[in-house]
Design a protein that fits this description.
Distance between the termini: 64 Å
CATH superfamily of the largest domain: Nitrogenase molybdenum iron protein domain
Largest sheet: 7 strands, mixed
Shape: globular
Number of helices: 11
Helix content: 25-40%
Number of strands: 13
Order of helices and strands: HEEHEEEHEHEHHEEHEEHEHEHH
CATH topology of the largest domain: Rossmann fold
């Protein structure tokens, strides 16, 4: 067995002291890590920062999407797994599903981490706070909350002008899409069911979910009228017989040839569709406008267009198929 000599031990000890001191100085200099700052800030809460943040960890792919659109990619020092937009980000992975790589979090020395309420377990949030890092929560349960999130991120990063332009684009686009859908539906709202997964039951999205907001804008009636994401019995699908069934990207369309789906109006009238890209539908961000556009095109067999995105981005936010 080999042992380190005394000089090696001393050298390593010095390195540890330097690293810890450096991190401590960073938090002191940036005025974070104090009791009144290192806490959870709920959506729309008054933040303690007096200047734009330049070292941010985004713990959700959807938040990263919005930060990129704002022009704040340069301020990201950490992101989460499953971040696909923008492409080819060379930024350390800090968020890992429902946990955090604490060593990496300390290495990147963020001024704050940004997430959504109740996504990460409380013990994870507590650990981050114990490290002296503020946790900023933003909402994303519907388009109104996404717009508010973008404005808040704009304030945090000093990109308020871009935030205002993005929100105006979203509002204009969604209003136009809803008007078109209302005209195309001729006053008769078709019913729709979203099959998110078949693992452990028929998973779907009900009220107070982002997907339900899609349906309302497209003038469609969700047959899942309970709140949140949950499983429904096949008998409900059979009895309600939705006019439209929306299949998640990872659900095999062959399920439509099996009970109870093969007895629905959607199957009989060939009105079932597989979403083109899960990231547009299940990562609530500004790009979700394009998901609503696609849904209306498919359901009403038409082509509607939204205004061009107001900010020039190297990674085109619109789907390649549009």
């Amino acid at each position: 067995m080999k042992f380190m000599n005394r000089n090696s031990v001393v050298a390593i000890a010095i390195i540890i002291v330097v690293v810890v001191a450096g991190v401590s100085y960073f938090y002191y200099r940036e005025n974070i890590g104090t009791t009144d700052v290192a806490q959870v800030y709920a959506p729309n809460a008054k933040l303690p920062f007096t200047h734009p943040l330049t070292r941010i960890v985004s713990l959700l792919p959807s938040i990263t999407v919005n930060l990129y659109a704002l022009g704040a990619e340069k301020d990201l020092v950490g992101i989460s797994t499953y971040t696909t937009y923008p492409k080819n980000l060379s930024i350390p992975i800090v968020g890992e599903l429902d946990t955090v790589n604490y060593e990496e979090l300390l290495n990147v020395s963020p001024q704050a981490v940004i997430t959504i309420p109740s996504y990460y377990p409380q013990d994870v949030i507590t650990k981050i706070l114990d490290m002296g890092i503020p946790v900023i929560e933003v909402g994303q349960n519907n388009f109104t909350q996404i717009e508010q999130q973008i404005l808040e991120l704009g304030n945090i990063t000093g990109t308020q002008k871009n935030a205002t332009e993005i929100v105006q684009w979203m509002q204009t686009s969604l209003m136009y899409l809803h008007q078109n859908a209302t005209e195309l539906s001729h006053g008769k709202r078709m019913s729709i069911f979203y099959l998110l997964s078949t693992e452990g039951g028929y998973w779907t999205a009900g009220n107070q979910t982002f997907i339900n907001d899609f349906f309302n804008i497209a003038d469609l009636q969700n047959i899942a009228n309970e709140s949140g994401y949950y499983t429904v019995p096949g008998s409900m699908i059979l009895n309600d017989s939705p006019d439209i069934i929306l299949l998640d990207q990872y659900v095999n369309s062959s399920v439509m040839k099996t009970a109870p789906f093969d007895q629905t109006n959607a199957y009989k009238n060939n009105m079932y569709f597989t979403i083109f890209d899960d990231n547009y539908f299940n990562q609530p961000a500004f790009r979700s406008v394009y998901a609503v556009q696609w849904l209306i095109d498919e359901v009403y067999n038409t082509t509607v267009n939204v205004p061009a995105f107001p900010i020039q981005l190297a990674d085109n936010p619109a789907p390649s198929s549009f």
